[in-house]
Design a protein that fits this description.
The complex is a heterodimer of chains A (about 270) and B (about 325). With about 270 residues, chain A is mainly α. Chain A is built from eleven helices and no strands. By secondary structure, chain B is an alpha/beta fold. Chain B folds into two domains: about 220 residues, P-loop containing nucleotide triphosphate hydrolases (Rossmann fold), CATH 3.40.50; about 70 residues, YebC, transcriptional regulation domain (Alpha-Beta Plaits), CATH 3.30.70.980. Helices cover about 40% and strands about 25% of the residues of chain B. Chain B is built from twelve helices and 14 strands. A six-stranded mixed β-sheet of chain B has the order 6-7-8-3-9-10, with helices on both faces. In chain B, strands 2-1-4-5 form a four-stranded antiparallel β-sheet, with helices on one face. In chain B, a hairpin with a 2-residue loop joins strand 12 and strand 13. In chain B, helix 3 packs across helix 4. Chain B is elongated and about 80 Å long. The N and C termini of chain B lie far apart (about 55 Å). The chains are: A mainly alpha (about 270), B alpha/beta (about 325). At the A-B interface, helix 1 and helix 5 of A face helix 2 and helix 3 of B. Bound molecules: adenosine-5'-triphosphate and magnesium ion. Adenosine-5'-triphosphate (ATP) binds next to strand 2 and helix 1 of chain B.
Chain lengths: ~270, ~325
C-alpha cells in the first residue's frame, strides 16, 4: 500500500516535468521535419512576401489611409494574416501524423497526453517567430518604418504570437477531424479568408457596407491587427484598449478551442 | 494472490460503426509471464483490433483486459510503461533519420538521457541499420522501415511486447534474424504476443497458439496440441493416377476417423497408428494391384490445423491455397 502511495506521489511530482520534457521532444521532432523539408518553409514564406508586394505596389495606391503611409498601415495586417495562415501548418501537421499512423505509436507510449498538441503548437510558434523576423526585413526593404521602441515592437509581436497560438488550437481540431492533410488544408481556407480579408488588415473598414463593418471591426483578427497597429504605428492608430481586447479574444479562443482539440485528440 | 498474467483479456468486444463490423466478439486471451503466444487468424479475424485494444490505442466496447495486472482502460499510463508495440504498419517518422526516431522514442519513454544514445546505437546495430542510421527514413526500403519500427518498440526494454505481423515484408534472412532477436528477448524474460500469418513462425516461436476467426477464439493450445487434435500422423500414398487415387480413398476410408483427401494422384489420411495403418494400406492396395509409387508418414503441419479449423488457408500461402481449394473441391465431388 505505502509503495503505491509513494510511487503515486513521485509520479505526480514528475508529471509536470515530464509533460514539459515531452512537449520539448515533440517540438524538436517537428522542427527537424521543418528543416528537412525546406521547400515547405520557403514557399510558405514566399506567399506573405507576395502579399506585401501586391498590396504595397498594386492595390496600395488605390487605398487611402489616414495619418501614415500605406505600407506602415499594411504591415501589421500582413503580420497578423501571416500568423493566421501559418496556423494551417498545425492542421496539416496533425492530419499527416494521424494519416501515417505516428499518432498510434505515440498513444502506446508512456508520454504525456498533452505532448502531441503542445509540441505541434510550440513548433508552429517557433516557425511564426522566424516568419515575423523575415517579414520585418521584407517590410523594411519596401519602406516600412515602425514607430515606437524595440519594447513596443516586441510587445506587438507577442500580441500576435498569442493570437496565433490560440488560433492553432482551432486548426489542431481541424487537422484531427480531417480525413487527410489535403482536406485539412482545404477546410482551413473558408475560415481564414473571411477572417483575414473582412478585417482591418488591408483596408479601412469605412469602405465596407454597414452590416459588414460591424463584423469587420470587432472580429478577432481586426482587433489583433488594431492592437499591433497601435503598438507599431501609433499616432492616429494609438488605441491601448485594442491591446486588451486582443488579449481577451486570444485567451477566450484558447479556452474554448484547446479543450475541444484535446478532447478530439483523445478520441481519434 | 494467484499467479499474475502478462496479458489477460476477458470477453472483449468491439464493433466498428463504419461498416457495422463486429471485429471482436467475446475475445479471451491469457498470456503467462515469459511466454510467447501466437495469435493466428485469417484476414479480418480481429488480430490487429485485439492488439490495439491491449496496447491502449483503442477502447473496447465491452469486456476487460489487463497487462501485468494493469487495466487497459483505467490504468493506461501504467500499461504504456509496461509494453512495447510494433503495429502492423510501420509507424516511424519519414523525415527523421533512423537514429532520430529511436532517440525520440527513448525520450518519450523517459529513459535517462545518457542511456538513450547507446541504446539507440545498439538497436540500430542489432537490426542491421547501423549504416543507414543517419539517413532519413524516407530513403529506407520497406523491410528497413519494418526493422526500425521493431527497434523502436524495444527501446525501453518493455517486459511485454506486442508484435503485429512482425516479419511481414521481411526477406528470409531478416526474418531469421528477427526470430533470433525474439528468442533472445524471451530468454531474457520478455513476454511476447505475436500475430502472424506464417504458421511456420508460430510453430517456431510460440509456446501457445491462439486461433481467432471472426473475433472469437476458435482454438487454443500448444502447436503440438493443435496438431494432435487432427490425429497423430498423416499418411500419404501416391498411386498411378487420379482414378486410382479415388479408388484407393474408398478402400482406405475406414482406416481414419477423419476426412480423406484426394489430391491429384495421391491420397492423404490422418491416422492414429501410423506404421500399422501404413502396412494395412499397402496390403489392401496390393490386393487390388493398385501400384504404390510413393508412401510417406508425416506429422500434420499447422497449415493442416488451420485449414481444418477455419476452412481456409493463410493468405500468404497462395500456392497452398489453390491446392487446398482444389482439395476441397475434389472432396466435395467425392462425397456427393
Ligand atoms: N477503423 C476501422 N473501421 C472500420 N472497420 C474496421 C476498422 N479496423 C478494423 N475494422 C474491421 O474489423 C475487422 C477486424 O480487423 P483487424 O484489422 O483486426 O483484422 P486482422 O485480423 O488484423 O486482419 P489482417 O490479417 O488482414 O491484418 C475487419 O473486418 C475490419 O474490416
Ligand atoms: Mg491485422
Amino acid at each position: 500500500m505505502s509503495d503505491i502511495a509513494l510511487s503515486e506521489r513521485t509520479s505526480s511530482n514528475h508529471t509536470v516535468r515530464y509533460a514539459l520534457q515531452d512537449i520539448g521532444t515533440v517540438t524538436k521532432r517537428n522542427l527537424i521535419r521543418t528543416r528537412r523539408i525546406p521547400e515547405a518553409l520557403f514557399f510558405s514564406s514566399l506567399q506573405p512576401i507576395m502579399f506585401v508586394l501586391l498590396f504595397r505596389y498594386v492595390f496600395g495606391g488605390a487605398i487611402p489611409v489616414q495619418g501614415t503611409t500605406y505600407v506602415n498601415y499594411l504591415m501589421p495586417g500582413i503580420f497578423v494574416q501571416t500568423m493566421c495562415f501559418g496556423a494551417i501548418s498545425t492542421s496539416i501537421g496533425l492530419a499527416e501524423d494521424l494519416q501515417t499512423g505516428l499518432l498510434e505509436r505515440f498513444r502506446a507510449l508512456p508520454m504525456s497526453r498533452s505532448a502531441v498538441l503542445g509540441g505541434r503548437t510550440s513548433a508552429d510558434v517557433v516557425r511564426n517567430i522566424f516568419v515575423i523576423l523575415l517579414m520585418t526585413l521584407v517590410g523594411v526593404l519596401v519602406g516600412f518604418r515602425p514607430a515606437g521602441t524595440i519594447a513596443t515592437y516586441i510587445a506587438a509581436c507577442l500580441v500576435m504570437l498569442l493570437f496565433s497560438y490560440a488560433l492553432m488550437w482551432g486548426f489542431a481540431l481541424i487537422g484531427l477531424s480531417a480525413p487527410n492533410a489535403e482536406v485539412a488544408q482545404l477546410m482551413s481556407f473558408p475560415i481564414l479568408f473571411p477572417l483575414t480579408f473582412a478585417s482591418t488588415a488591408f483596408v479601412p473598414v469605412q469602405s465596407m457596407p454597414g452590416w459588414l463593418q460591424v463584423f469587420a471591426k470587432n472580429q478577432p483578427v481586426s482587433v489583433t491587427v488594431d492592437a499591433v497597429r497601435s503598438l507599431m504605428v501609433g499616432g492616429t492608430y494609438h488605441d491601448p484598449s485594442s491591446i486588451w481586447k486582443a488579449i481577451v479574444w486570444s485567451v477566450g479562443i484558447f479556452l474554448v478551442l484547446a479543450p475541444l482539440a484535446i478532447r478530439k485528440y483523445r478520441k481519434v | 494472490m494467484s499467479e499474475i498474467l502478462a496479458v489477460e483479456a476477458r470477453g472483449l468486444t468491439k464493433t466498428f460503426s463504419k461498416g457495422d463490423v463486429k471485429a471482436l466478439d467475446g475475445f479471451d486471451l491469457d498470456v503467462p509471464v515469459g511466454q510467447v503466444v501466437g495469435l493466428l487468424g485469417p484476414n479480418g479475424a480481429g488480430k490487429t483490433t485485439a492488439v490495439r485494444i491491449l496496447s491502449t490505442i483503442l477502447a473496447a466496447d465491452g469486456g476487460t483486459a489487463r497487462i501485468m495486472g494493469f487495466d487497459v482502460a483505467k490504468q493506461a499510463g501504467d500499461v504504456r510503461k509496461t509494453i512495447g508495440l510494433a503495429g502492423q504498419f510501420a509507424t516511424v517518422d519519414e523525415y527523421l533519420t533512423g537514429f532520430e526516431n529511436l532517440d525520440m522514442v527513448g525520450h518519450l519513454c523517459h529513459l535517462p538521457s545518457t542511456s538513450i544514445r547507446p541504446r539507440a546505437t545498439e538497436l540500430l546495430e542489432q537490426f542491421g541499420l547501423a549504416d543507414a542510421a543517419d539517413r532519413p527514413v524516407s530513403t529506407y526500403s520497406g523491410g528497413m522501415r519494418r526493422r526500425l519500427d521493431l527497434a523502436a518498440a524495444l527501446v525501453a526494454r518493455p517486459p511485454v511486447l506486442f508484435l503485429d505481423e512482425p516479419t511481414t515484408g521481411l526477406d528470409p534472412q531478416s526474418r531469421l534474424g528477427l526470430w533470433d532477436v525474439i528468442e533472445a528477448l524471451v530468454a531474457g524474460g520478455t513476454t511476447v504476443l505475436l500475430t502472424t500469418q506464417y504458421l511456420e513462425e508460430a510453430d517456431r516461436l510460440a509456446n501457445r497458439v491462439v486461433v481467432i476467426n471472426a473475433g472469437k477464439v476458435i482454438a487454443n493450445g500448444t502447436p503440438a496440441d493443435l496438431k494432435a487434435d487432427l490425429g497423430a500422423t498423416v499418411l500419404e500414398v501416391t498411386v498411378g493416377d487420379h482414378d486410382q487415387a479415388l479408388r484407393s480413398a474408398e478402400l482406405l476410408k475406414d482406416l481414419s476417423s477423419k476426412v480423406v483427401h484426394v489430391d491429384g494422384d495421391s491420397v492423404e489420411i490422418t491416422v492414429e497408428e501410423g506404421p500399422s495403418v501404413a502396412a494395412e494400406a499397402i496390403r489392401r492396395l496390393d490386393a487390388l494391384s493398385i501400384p504404390i509409387l510413393g508412401l510417406s508418414l508425416h506429422e500434420p503441419s499447422l497449415d493442416d490445423v488451420f485449414l481444418a479449423l477455419t476452412g481456409q488457408k493463410t493468405e500468404v500461402d497462395t500456392e497452398a491455397l489453390t491446392e487446398s481449394t482444389k482439395r476441397r473441391g475434389r472432396k466435395a465431388k467425392e462425397t456427393s
